[in-house]
Specification:
The chain folds into 2 domains: 73 residues, no CATH class; 48 residues, Double Stranded RNA Binding Domain (2-Layer Sandwich), CATH 3.30.160. A hairpin with a 6-residue loop joins strand 7 and strand 8. It has a two-stranded antiparallel ribbon with strand order 1-2. The protein has a two-stranded antiparallel sheet with strand order 3-4. Strands 5-6 form a two-stranded antiparallel sheet. The protein is an alpha+beta fold and 137 residues long. It is built from 5 helices and 8 strands; from the N terminus they run H-E-E-H-E-E-H-E-E-H-E-E-H. It is 38% helix and 12% strand. This is C2H2-type domain-containing protein. It holds the Pfam family zf-C2H2. Keywords: Metal-binding, Nucleus, Repeat, Zinc, Zinc-finger. One of its GO terms (molecular function) is RNA polymerase II cis-regulatory region sequence-specific DNA binding.
Length: 137
């Protein structure tokens, strides 16, 4: 390499090395982190975001409402539901409606099964959210 003296007999390694001097930046569309070469970006995408080296940006689902990018189709569908205002997950015990099955399950555990995350040290009263506990005390 005429810039830094790097030497290799492997043409692919030399080409990859030269990308460092090209001034190009390889930016991850998922989180914005930048790499000096494409192999660093591909390695990052595999390890951090679960994308294979051959998977293109076309497999990323982008929310048209808020711009969030999601790689899992089901997670994307759940995310989109949060913007719609549709509450189609109904509790069979009390009729309360929720946007997602996860929210419904949290409700069932906290309200109907008495499985609370926070408990009052004085009386043992259980609540789902810390803010509820603080107002209780």
């Amino acid at each position: 390499c005429s810039f830094c003296g790097y030497a290799t007999k492997n043409p692919a390694s030399y080409q990859q090395h030269m990308e460092k001097h090209s001034g190009k930046g390889y930016e991850c569309i998922m989180c914005g982190i930048k790499y000096t070469n494409s192999s660093g970006l591909y390695r990052h995408r595999r390890k951090v975001h679960g994308l294979s080296a051959h998977r293109s940006e076309n497999h990323v689902y982008k929310c048209h409402e808020c711009g969030k990018e999601i790689i899992d189709k089901h997670a994307y569908q759940v995310h989109i539901k949060r913007h719609t205002g549709i509450h189609d997950q109904i509790c069979e015990q009390c009729g309360k409606a929720f946007k997602t099955s996860t929210d419904l399950q949290k409700h069932i555990r906290a309200v109907h099964l008495n499985r609370y995350h926070h408990h009052c040290k004085n009386c043992g009263h259980g609540v789902a959210k810390l803010s509820y506990l603080l107002s209780h005390q």
